[in-house]
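Posted in: Structural Biology > Protein-Ligand Complexes

Title: Requesting predicted complex, PBG in pocket

I'd be grateful if someone could produce the 3D structure tokens for the following input. Sequence and ligand are given below.
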Amino acid sequence: MQQRPRRNRRTEAIRGMVRETRVHTDQLIYPLFLINDANAKEAINALPGQYRFGLNHLLKEIEESLNLGLSSFVLFPGVADELKDKTASYSYAEENFYLHAIRAVKERFPEACLMSDVAMDPYSADGHDGFVQDGKILNDETLPILNKMAIAQAQAGIDILGPSDMMDGRVASLRDALDGKGFEEVAIMSYTAKYASAFYGPFREALDSAPKAGDKKTYQMDPANRREALREAALDMDEGADYLMVKPALCYLDIISDLKANCDVPISAYNVSGEYAMLKAAAERGWINYEQAMPEMLTSIVRAGADIVLTYFAKEFAQMQKR
Ligand code: PBG
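-- Reply #1 --
Done. Output follows.
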């Protein structure tokens, strides 16, 4: 035999030398859920190991993460039902606890990179990402609301805006609004190819943000479509997105690979709540080796082309790397 590929797998030293993909803690973004009760820390049933944090616990979680070399976070607010309305007005209200939390974190840890969620659903009485009228999600009527939300977040000190709403034209609209207010340095990580996925279930439970009627299929993408992701990517690049995201990650590795091959901005992938919950559930039952499967999942996402991974595994991965 002239060729014996196994020679390159013989020892750990050789395997390490020829390894093509490495996941680094500094390319991970850790999603955190926030509630308006400073001393609370509530476990989330469908996301074992994840919590709804009050501000004091949030600061502690961020401090521990920073000490592990994990310095980027995406924050999601859990809003009380009585504050939700048709126009998501609490999202840019003066007293919004989410905006206050962004300020508090940036003040205490200026070195942390904070990303927001820009979409109406956590604040909307309809539970949709856009403005609802007669059962329809209206596109152009949603954009000014997203602009107000984004400017409030920029004023609070956010580093990166994360429009997750899938309205057409929102990246350009946000960019214009931000630049008009002097926020040229605030970046946009667009949820470019966000699919109408069943894997968001645990997240919607965590925030009690599921749609009150209908589904999200008129704005989130059909899981069957691949070329359409390139169309969305071209639009977002054109509109000034600084990063493009694919979401979910594991069932969409082909989309990550396509965007990486066709776009010259950093590509991120959101390893979503259902993907986390599946592995945690199997591990709890002793059906799968968590310590091996978790890094294997993250490696596959990076191998497919993701420069950045948003993942609930971030802190545990950082801890494993430290050991
Ligand atoms: C809301 C939003 C969702 C997620 C992030 N932002 C849910 C949805 O679109 O219904 C899902 C994240 C996850 O499942 O981990 N705009």
